[in-house]
Amino acid sequence: MAKRPFEKSHFLHIDRHKYKKEYRRLKKLFRDDAYIVKPNQALQEKQLYKYWKNRKNLFSKIDGAPIYMTNELWYSVTPEVIAKFLAKFIRACLPDATRVMDVFCGGGGNTIQFAKLFPRVYGVDASLEHLYCTYRNAKSYDVSDRIWLKYATWQQIVEKGRFARLGIDCVFGSPPWGGPQYLRSKEYDLETNLIPMGITEMLKSFLKISPNVVLFLPRNSNLSQLSRATRSVLGPSGQCRVIYVKDNGFLKGILCMWGAALISPVEEQCAPNEDEDKQPENLHDKQESPDRIAVNYDLDG
């Protein structure tokens, strides 16, 4: 009997009648070995070449194990060193956590690192091709048995409320920023440019799943909007911890956190104690406003 190309149980509800077409499409992706990266063959698209050139920053195993990427994933996957740092940070803050959700999981950069530290990780994405890539990449990192993937838009997930009953310990999201052109603006508007909804509604929807929320947002995000969203959803005493993440001296983005265990400013008690994954640029939190705690990290890749 031929070996099954994938465990369909790890694609939640994909064999239901309503997903009949999607299931057929998924099986074809596996049969065709679609989107496999040829590490020694440069991408033809000129606008993607700089991402291909730094491919080992996205997946360190890319030269020795099969990695799968759509064109969009080249500029949207979280660099591995950042994904690794974040997973360890959340593990340190929530030592008893067992279930983590990765919304907009894309190619699985964060999902994989979560699965190395947590026994059960849920990935959600509105692209079947991205879920396929996540599963394939997780296979290459030997963690596919710890992830369960759901094909749906985030709005559909929130409306049905199914995941709210699973006891998710932390929800992470790196929502689409609108492509590389997000840097054309001096300040990124978190209410109008963030996809698929503004920061206020996104925070509100994430908190329906778990009291612990982390978002990876553009480095030029409007922090005043972040403060207003925090107050709007959590009240005047609500707090958000902001971590500025640098890699090799370059600011890559900001990690925004909500939840008592994540925002605690007590001398970096949540920070992972691995020198190879971070070098603190500033060891002390800075209280910039009543609802925003900021700290800088420099990652040593």
Compose a concise summary of this entry.
It is built from 11 helices and 10 strands.
Describe the structure.
Residues 269-301 are annotated as: Disordered. One of its GO terms (biological process) is nucleologenesis. This protein starts with 19 loop residues before the first helix and ends with a strand. Helix content is 31%, strand content 19%. The protein is globular. Helix 9 crosses helix 10 (223-234). The relative contact order is 0.12. The protein has 11 helices and 10 strands. The protein has 301 residues and is of the alpha/beta class.
Produce the secondary structure layout:
Blueprint: H1 20-32, H2 49-53, H3 55-58, H4 71-74, H5 80-93, E1 99-103, H6 109-117, E2 120-125, H7 128-140, E3 147-151, H8 154-160, E4 170-173, H9 199-207, E5 213-217, H10 223-234, E6 240-247, E7 250-258, H11 260-263, E8 279-280, E9 286-289, E10 292-299
Parallel strand pairs: 1-2, 1-4, 2-3, 4-5, 6-10
Antiparallel strand pairs: 5-7, 6-7, 8-10, 9-10
Helix pairs in contact: 5-6, 9-10
Percent of residues in helices comes to 25-40%
What is the averaged pLDDT score?
87
Main pleated-sheet profile: 10 strands, mixed
What is the 3D form? globular
- Low-confidence segments: 274-290
Structural class: alpha/beta
Number of helices: 11
CATH top level assignment: Alpha Beta
Beta-strand content: 15-25%
Give the tally of structural domains: 1
**What separation lies between the terminal Cα atoms?**
44 Å
Counted beta strands = 10
Taken in chain order, the helices and strands follow as: HHHHHEHEHEHEHEHEEHEEE
- CATH superfamily heading: Vaccinia Virus protein VP39
CATH fold node name: Rossmann fold
CATH-defined architecture: 3-Layer(aba) Sandwich
Round the Cα radius of gyration to an integer and report it.
19 Å
Protein name: Trimethylguanosine synthase
Region (Disordered): 269-301
Family: Belongs to the methyltransferase superfamily. Trimethylguanosine synthase family.
InterPro entries: RNA_cap_Gua-N2-MeTrfase, SAM-dependent_MTases_sf
